[in-house]
Amino acid sequence: MKKKIFVFLPDGVGLRNFALTAFKNIGENRDFDIIYWNNTPFSITEKLGFKEIKIQDTTLHPFTTVYTRARKRMELNFYDKKFKETVYNTYNFPHSYFGIKNVFKSVMVDTLTFFGSNTKGIQFVRERIKKAERTTTKYQHCKKQLQEHKPDFVFCTNQRPTQAISPILAAQDLGIPTGTFIFSWDNLPKAMTLVETDYYFVWSQHMKKELLTYSPYVDESQVFVTGTPQFESHFDKSLLQTKETFFENHRLDINTKYICFSGDDIVTSPLDQFYLEDLAISVRELNNQGYSLGIIYRKCPVDFTDRYESVLKKYKDVIVSIDPLWTPVGTSWNEIMPTKEDFALQANVCEHTEFVANIASSMVFDFVAHNKSCLFFDYEQPQLKKGIRDIGQNYKYIHFRSMPTNEAALWIKDKTMLTQKVKDILDGKASSVADGKKWFEIIVGERPIDASQKIWDSIDFILK
After folding, report:
1. Half-sphere exposure of 347 (CA within 13 A, CB side)
2. Do 287 and 239 sit in the same domain of this protein?
3. Does 283 lie in the same domain as 425?
4. Same domain, 276 and 424
5. pLDDT of residue 93
6. Cys staple from 370: which of 289, 345, 350, 389, with CB 3.0 to 4.6 Å?
7. Which GO terms label this protein's molecular function in UniProt (predicted)?
8. Contact residues for 407 (Cβ-Cβ < 8 A; gap 6+)
9. Domain that includes residue 92, residue range
10. Quick check: is 131 in a domain?
11. Which one, of 409, 382, 435, lies nearest residue 275 by Cα?
12. Do the beta carbons of residue 357 and residue 377 sit within 8 Å?
């Protein structure tokens, strides 16, 4: 009999890896019955034709957001003390004190954090979250669905959302084995593991070590190193267009060499538009020296601001926008859904541009998969003032310590260096590809093309 697998989508971020890749086809070819347990507003059946069961109840316990916010702060405080650091607390976002409700929640979070930033306190809050979520109507709703459909395994595509907690608890209380995929390369040191499952799927040995370090309640036998489907498309040659076709489709000049500027969200890089402007000024300078250069600006899919518009207009002679092919199905950042077409678009942008420039983005890995360098901006803008986040903070984060050498990316620490560095990359005098590949292997693993296959191998092993 076929084993029934619930691929659980607590929010939209898991769609990209587990609904729009070959993941489902690989599982079905191995005789698994795959059903998407869908907590998102995106209709899997309507848009993709896949089997789904919609979770209609999205109720959280009133104290869950308090406890989960407190847990994050408590864990980050604990990491700072345990590892003699100061960096972990920089992952925190400021509290909101607008309105009585927010004041009450923020004071509760602060109180729990002050008294509970230790092993016992963290354990207390973890248990309170579970106790609270088991009392919700959503927990009962999910439990009923599980009892009706009887899956053999629940695979959670993202360990971060509070919306994932009660469905996973419902499955565990019914004796159904559960697993979660660690979604992003920076999630573990940021204390973003809210979902506690029976098994964990991580990208690499490096991430496995992080998981065991930051989640001492996890045993090594529960962890499977699989890679991530996120990068599989970069190794699928069938997605690549010829340079001529790609340039024609996007009205690019075939005689121009393009640099990709990949935009960041406003939290990571609040002054991002000015770095794009700096690159445009350098491109103009080099064009005056006889080069024929342009910039492809790929916006961050979840950036809803208009902060780039004046730069795009001012430098339209050198900047072309090619927007990601994502679709909004709601108003929040996790309701902007990727499409299959964007996999091909992103792969072709990587393939047909000279290198990528950005602030602290994981696009470094997308480009090195195409043997292209990444240039990181690491200098302050004159527009920086109190209340605006300095982008230099990004490079101090724990996940950047995974770089094997400083040459795994090219650095611009002074704006006056930018034009010469761009020239050196184009002339073959500067490259981050060799060490970038070593960094890619540390973070993503040795066989990125096999990630979906390895996840199914692991599920098969667990069920046997």
Report:
1. 18
2. yes
3. yes
4. yes
5. 77
6. 350
7. transferase activity
8. 432, 434, 435
9. 64-117
10. no
11. 382
12. yes
- Phi, psi of 375, deg, nearest 5: -110, 120
Length of the chain: 464
Alpha carbon distance 341, 325 (integer Å): 7
> pLDDT tens digit string along 93-138?
777 777 788 888 889 999 999 999 999 999 999 999 999 999 999 9
Confidence of residue 387 (pLDDT cuts 50, 70, 90): confident
3-class SS of residue 71: helix
Each residue of 238-296: pLDDT tens digit? Answer: 999 999 999 999 999 999 999 999 999 998 899 999 999 999 999 999 999 999 999 99
Half-sphere exposure for 221 (CA within 13 Å, toward CB): 1
**Mode of pairing for the β-strands spanning 336-337 and 327-328:** antiparallel
**184 three-class SS:** coil
In a domain, 142, yes or no: yes
Break the chain down into helix, strand, coil percent, rounded to 5: 50, 15, 40
**Pairwise CA distance, residues 172 & 163, whole Å:** 16
Q: For 287-321, how does the pLDDT look when each residue is reduced to its tens digit (9 = 90+)?
A: 999 999 999 999 998 888 999 999 999 999 999 99
pLDDT of 333 over the 70 cut:
no
Tokens for 50, please give them. Answer: 């896949």
Name every residue whose Cβ is closer than 8 Å to that of residue 168 and which is 6 or more positions away in sequence. 8, 154, 156, 178, 180, 195, 196, 197
Whether 124 maps to a domain, the answer reads no
- pLDDT, averaged across the chain: 95
Convert 421-445 to b/e letters by CB count within 10 Å (16 or more is b). Answer: bbbebbeeebbbbebbbebbbbbbb
Each as own residue / partner, the long-range contacts of residues 221-225 (CB below 8 Å, 24 or more positions apart, any chain) are 222/198, 223/199, 224/179, 224/199, 224/200, 224/454, 224/455, 224/458, 224/461, 225/445, 225/454
Q: In percent, how much of the chain has pLDDT > 90?
A: 86
Residue 52, in any domain of the structure: yes
Write the DSSP string, 411-436. EE-SGGGHHHHHHHHHTTS---HHHH
Q: What is the mean pLDDT of the segment spanning 151-180?
A: 97
Residue 224, beta-bridge partner list = 201
- The secondary structure element, H or E, covering residue 124 is helix 119-133
Alpha-carbon distance of 357 to 422, in angstroms, equals 10
Average pLDDT over residues 198-227: 98
Distance of CA 422 to the CA centre of its chain: 28
Structure tokens at 276: 């794009």
Q: What is the pLDDT of residue 389?
A: 77
DSSP string, 357-380: EESS-THHHHHHTTT-EEEEE-S-
3-state secondary structure of 5: strand
41, pLDDT greater than 90: no
Same structural domain for residues 327 and 392?
yes
For the chain, the domain total comes to: 3
